[in-house]
Design the sequence.
């Protein structure tokens, strides 16, 4: 009887063990497929999230001079003359593009306005459409700016003020001085 019990127990153990092995293999296969499906689903989700972004700046107006049409219209031609062309030696270069007025129009007028009253189209759009707050008075002809020294105005140009970017890398010291001289003529 004890032998029969041991024999039955042995058969049950084999069945349980072999069944467990089959189940664990099945579980491993299902887990592997589940991982592949889960990875694919995560990949599709991340691609969907990436495709929802616009990929551009939230502000559609660039107020630095390098992005403006008025600056690009004054660029030199990009191609050199053909080798068979006749040489032309023009007179001395005009300094019209180095005047403070021209530099002000290219760099500052889009926010400060052509008359420097602080009514430029870009600044108005930034305030109305995008909700930017202006802490300093953008009117360059007003009493506040008239009371500033040239060094203070130049420091504003170099460091920027709230919405106004820094022009320290875009304008040389001479160009900043020419702009300040032009602003003084408007006051």
Sequence:
């Amino acid at each position: 009887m004890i032998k029969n019990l041991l024999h039955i127990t042995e058969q049950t153990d084999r069945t349980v063990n072999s069944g467990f092995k089959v189940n664990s293999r099945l579980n491993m296969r299902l887990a592997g497929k589940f991982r592949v499906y889960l990875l694919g689903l995560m990949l599709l989700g991340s691609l969907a999230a990436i495709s929802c972004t616009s990929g551009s700046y939230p502000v559609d107006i660039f107020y630095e001079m390098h992005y403006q049409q008025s600056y690009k219209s004054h660029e030199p031609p990009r191609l050199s003359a053909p080798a068979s062309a006749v040489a032309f030696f023009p007179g001395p270069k005009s300094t019209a593009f180095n005047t403070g007025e021209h530099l002000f129009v290219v760099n500052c007028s889009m926010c400060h306005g052509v008359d420097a009253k602080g009514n430029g189209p870009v600044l108005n759009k930034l305030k109305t459409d995008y909700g930017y707050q202006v802490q300093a008075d953008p009117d360059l002809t007003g009493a506040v700016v008239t009371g500033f020294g040239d060094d203070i105005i130049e420091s504003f140009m170099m460091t920027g003020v709230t919405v106004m970017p820094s022009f320290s890398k875009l304008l040389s010291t001479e160009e900043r001085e020419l702009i300040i001289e032009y602003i003084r003529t408007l006051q």
About this structure: The chain has two domains: 1-45, 65-72+96-186. The CA atoms of residues 59 and 130 lie 8 Å apart. Residues 2-51 form the longest helix (50 residues).
